Amino acid sequence: MRAYILGGKPVHFPFLSGMLTYNCQDCDAPCCRGNGIGIGRSRELVTLASVQKKLPLFATPGFSGSAMLSLSAPKEGCWFLDKKARCRLETVIGRQAKPAGCRLFPFQRLRQMGNAVTVMPDFVCPLSVADSPDETGPFSHDELVIEMHRTHIPARGHQPLPAPADMTWDVAQKLERRVVRKSEKHLNDKSYVPFAQRQLRLIEGRKDDDRDLAQLETLERDLRSFLDVAGPSRRENVHDMVALTGVLRLMTSGLPRRSMPSLLLATTILLDAYDTMKGTRHSSRTPVSLFEQRLPFLFVLSHLLDKPMLVENVDPKRLISTFPAVRAPLLSVLEAVVENRAVARPKTTLQILEDQKRTFRPPLTFEAVAMLYGLGRILLSHGQFVAGRARAPQS
User: Fold this and answer.
1) pTM of the model as a whole
2) Measured between alpha carbons, how far is 346 from 386 in angstroms, rounded to an integer?
3) Residue 265 in contact with residue 218, Cβ under 8 Å?
4) How many Cα atoms within 13 Å fall on the side-chain side of residue 211?
5) Cβ–Cβ contacts within 10 Å for residue 158, how many?
């Protein structure tokens, strides 16, 4: 992977060069409805105003944390769309006439990660994951950086990502680059487990340890049993999850890096469950949607074999006071989590759930999953975990 600089700051791409692509000709232009349009403070303003004379009335200061101006496009569609939802600026005048934010889209979301800048894709766009990386072409890192300089993207002023809970950004930046670089070797794996193990080994100061592999294999087996999802994973699911790993890791940058491989493994298995449902439409954006929408639930699943505890001086009754309807099993689970801190042999999350009679036995009910989602919200903000040991495979 090459090194890129923007205004003296290193640029990090959380995906391999050319791995994320899109085709505007086959798109219904969701990016052009109700979303802000970034425009550079240059001759671009004159060009756009000459096409739409009233356009200045819709200007707003700042775009995606940058110094660019923003135009508030209406929900019905951008002023520059034709009857076929195609951009008239691009088709009539040319791509360089488009607003800066449109030329960069969907790679216009820049975020600070320590002293570096990272490019976070905007999945409003129906992005596709390519079969393999490509160092050339319109979606390569080279072309994206050139476009950033053309559009005068500032190096500073972007919204910062929260630092990981278990390391500084100086250390985490190197780790995230290594994860993306190593992902290429795992794009054609049959399971996400080998790449999850690779991520654990890349953590600063860790050595190769086959116990990591055993733990992850056990977690995968227990998760499939708990969720009633048969294996193995579809090859396409593993490919997309590996390609998107760098992006997903930064979407939850504040979580400990040590917990990410298990969290992404749980996401892969939930993606397998999604694919078994009738009428589902799978795209390369599906893993991102599941990850965003189901994060608290996935967080509990990823720590199924770990021993949960609440941070000290936290009142569990206060934690559930905002829940609209608290069920007795959730209270019992939370009490067991509190007790874990005081006993000599704390229980794993799975053992605590198994103690609740039939409540959390597969196949999980609506109520059971809703309670696990609520538990995940609590543990995300007030939880700690002690790593458990892999159980021997059952004959």
Assistant:
1) 0.90
2) 9
3) no
4) 8
5) 20
Place of tokens 């002690």: 386
* Phi and psi at residue 247, to the nearest 5°: -70, -45
**Whether 37 contacts 73, CB under 8 Å:** yes
The whole-angstrom separation of Cα 72 and Cα 76 is: 12
**HSE toward the beta carbon, residue 187, CA cutoff 13 A:** 17
Q: What is the 3-state secondary structure (H, E, C) of 147-174?
A: HHHHCCCCCCCCCECCCCCCCCHHHHHH
Contact 309, 385 (CB under 8 A): yes
Cβ contact 16:127 at 8 Å: no
Contact 167, 1 (CB under 8 A): no
- Alpha-carbon span 348 to 391, nearest angstrom: 12
Instruction: Give domain limits for the chain.
Output: 33-100, 303-395
* 187 contacts 237 by C-beta, under 8 angstroms: no
pLDDT tens for the 395 residues of the chain, in order: 688 999 889 999 999 999 999 887 777 777 888 878 888 777 778 888 888 899 889 888 877 666 778 888 888 888 888 888 888 888 888 877 888 788 888 998 899 999 999 999 999 888 999 999 999 998 999 999 998 888 778 778 789 999 999 999 999 999 999 999 999 999 999 999 999 999 999 986 656 567 778 999 999 999 999 999 999 999 999 999 999 999 999 999 999 999 999 999 999 999 999 999 988 888 888 999 999 999 999 999 999 999 999 988 777 778 877 777 777 888 899 999 999 999 999 999 999 999 998 999 999 999 999 999 999 999 999 999 998 765 544 44
> Are the beta carbons of 44 and 94 closer than 8 angstroms?
no
What is the residue whose two structure tokens read 């990823």?
A: 302
HSE of 57 in the Cβ direction (CA atoms, 13 Å)? 5
Cα radius of gyration (the chain): 23
